[in-house]
Amino acid sequence: MPFTFSHPLFAVPLRRLAPSLSLSGLLLGSMTPDMEYFVAMEPFRSIGHSWPGFLLLGVPLSLAAAAAWHFLLAPLLPRLLPAALRLDRYAADRIAGRRFALESPRAAAWFLLSLYIGFLSHLFVDGMTHTYGWLVLWRPDLFHAHHAGLPVYRWLQYLLSMLGLLAGAVWLATDYARWRRSARAAASSAARPLALLARWMLAAALGFLLFVPKLLLAPSPDNPVLWLVAACSSALYGLFAAGLLLGPGRLPLKLAGSALVPLLAAGYKAVMMARDVGGERFSAAELPLWLLYIWLLSIAFIALSASARPVRATASGTAQHPQRRSGPAV
Description:
Layout (H helix, E strand, L loop, with lengths): L22 H7 L5 H6 L10 H30 L6 H9 L9 H22 L7 H5 L1 H4 L2 E2 L2 E2 H29 L2 H5 L8 H22 L6 H23 L4 H28 L7 H22 L4 E2 L5 E2 L10
Antiparallel strand pairs: 1-2, 3-4
């Protein structure tokens, strides 16, 4: 299948056809089937690519990811980027005025609909690159033909992955160049800086709390896919925990909150090891335990993000508590 972070390319443009769709919903929905890989920190797959998986895995994980980004990471982003090339000012200006709120049934319905559309786009694209995908089954003689040692559908997988990442990079570079030429860039002021080296060291150390134990306990620690997925998961958690510690609030509570996710992961691992000792008697409990872990983890991320106080970055890089105001919904 195409690389997970390439999937938004095929979902986000749909908002041009229906502006009421949620940008966050489309983006997150396009990645929901693969989210369980990053929770497991390995290429583990259960029901994520099915309709029950969308409801039981995709929805809670997407809500947790949206809360983590909009309530915790995005407001801090301008202070965590270097002042070189005005990157901090660019991030502050692009974040300012953005709002994410499910304050009404209508807003919640649009977000869930956007999630589902993004989910369907993921399945559609996967169907072009899977061994038994719809496109491969339509012309097996064509897509199973080997070129340079790989079948055509595998080359298509790599092509779509590169296209998705490249399109995202081109859009970001174009938007940044447009902002640099605008009057808003000249009027913006620098964000309040943090010690970038200390920040990155903190994020790396927190990420290692998950990464190292995962490799030590993995049955196949030399698997390159395991390294890729575990590294992405650890990096994302490290940034989240660093944002939590650098944000407002009492330090003891923030320390306890940043330790909650590793503790949940350790608890789930201990339960699964006990299940393995129990043998077949507990084999039927694997999926319910996995779903319970997903929901507990999602609730923890939402609660921790909310506890950091939903602040809003201004064009000057300062953080303000949100007020009801107009702005583009994301």
